[in-house]
Amino acid sequence: MALGRAYSVAVKAVTGQTVEIEADISAGLPGVHLVGLPDAALQESRDRVRAAITNCGFTWPASRLTLALSPATLPKMGSVYDLALATAVLSANKAIPPIRLEKTLLLGELALDGRVRPIRGVLPAVLAAKRDGWPTVVVPQANLAEAGLVEGIEVLGTQTLRQLTAWLCTEGELDPVLQSDFRQEVDIPDLADVVGHADARFAVELAAAGAHHLMLTGPPGIGKTMLAQRLPGLLPPLTDAEALEVTAIHSVAGLLTAGQPLITEPPFVAPHHTSSVAALVGGGSGIAKPGAVSMAHRGVLFLDECAELSTPALEALRTPLEDGEIRLARRDGVVAYPARFQLVLAANPCPCAPANPRDCTCPAQLRRRYLGKLSGPLLDRVDLRVKMHPISQAALNDVAEATALVRERVTLARDRASRRWSEYGFRVNADAPGPLLRKEFRPSRPVLEPLRNAMERGLISVRALDRCLRVAWTLADLAGRELPSVEDVKLALTFRDKR
Fold first, then answer.
1. 37 and 97 housed in the same domain
2. Which among 232, 192, 193 has a CA at the least distance from the CA of 211?
């Protein structure tokens, strides 16, 4: 009997767990038995591993081979374990020594000729390896830049199984991480391209300053999409921790490239208006994959033609908007993906949507039903609602403010908010809890009077009151005031009256 061990990582959502892989060669009829809740892709790894080992010049065991992946209760999915399975077999067959193998985590898919192919989820896997105290992790050479984002752990890359075995036998070297600045210049659309629409431009600035959700309503071609696309340019770059968090989600989704392994700017995600619930919030069989709400984490989720989305898809947004994460239950378990994004909705006022509202041919009932698909609970979570109207021909000659100028004001407002909320653990007004706004940071009675009147008339809920207070604080921050004024509160209320 001969036993070999190797180690890899199972990635579930954006977290990883160390997996021990044992290879046991025992007496019996030749055959490979794989245990430990493997999925179909992992079952197929038996043929890939055998072909890679023999094509690299090693001998395949001529007796019974048992491959066990522990913990046995954890579902194992994908081809990430190929490299560890192959080295465990070689260790059991005494082809490589166990010294380095016992201190190294291995990630990678094998081709039949022994080449190591790239995989998804490398970043969360390496983060898990660092968390668990592993000194070294070996990844496919194509994933080396992504894995090298994690500091405090030795990351090496391999192109072939033969190169890895030479290193394990201390007869060769693996590829090290090349230090590089992965922050790249991003071509940001300029707000100066949008002329006119002063109210809508100010709403976008307000949304950027306080991380508020926004809805733009108006006829086609009026500039709703242009404004939404310019919102990320007003937001500050991601911090190092946020960049790793966002990059890990995109790594699991398989959307990273070798040329840009680190996402440093707030993402902008714009799913099609025919997207399903699964495409929007995540789904799939086995373990759920991240959807658009998670891909937009720390950035902007733009739903153009939102009234064309299905009602279930729209209602599925309510939980992530409130909680900042989405929990998905599927056959192989429950996963939680981060989903703290800024929502921007854009809609036409009616199905025909003429440039001039007086030319509308839709019956009144159809107009009400069109935007009525946006339920009250969903709209209650949208802080800023702006109705856009066609601009005059003279306005086309106006000179609009550039993104750089507006971003300076947004940065100052965010700095004021960050200093105010820092001791409470958050940085933007949109994250301020209602009880805190109504107690420790409660405005004076005259300032609150418009909100009291609106509540007494049944125009706003308690949640809407809290959201109005958050917008009022953002208005004060943009104006450089220490406290919101009654004008700030009134303006915050007017932003909720428009659809």
1. yes
2. 232
If asked whether residues 13 and 138 sit together in one domain, one would say: yes
Separation of alpha carbons 235 and 207, rounded Å: 10
- How does pLDDT run across 177-216, given as a tens digit for each residue? 887 656 666 678 899 998 888 899 999 999 999 999 999 9
pTM of the model: 0.91
Q: How far apart are CA 247 and CA 403, in angstroms?
A: 25
Q: Please give the Cα distance from 468 to 460 (Å, whole number).
A: 9
Query: How is residue 181 written in tokens?
Result: 């600045």
Tokens of 108: 């990678």
Which residues contact residue 363 at a Cβ distance below 8 angstroms, ignoring those fewer than 6 apart? none
Residues 478-487 have a mean pLDDT of 95
CA 348 from centroid of its chain's CA atoms: 28
Tokens of 140: 């496919």
Are 382 and 426 within one domain? no
Structural domain of residue 223, as residue ranges? 191-400
DSSP designation for 160: B
Q: Which amino acid appears at position 201 of this protein?
A: R
H or E element in which residue 396 lies: none
Instruction: Report which of 360, 104, 111 is spatially closest to residue 218, judged by C-alpha positions.
Output: 360
Structural contact between residues 140 and 109, judged by C-beta atoms closer than 8 angstroms = yes
For the ranges 106-115, 219-228, 369-378, the lowest mean pLDDT is seen at 369-378
183 is a domain residue: no
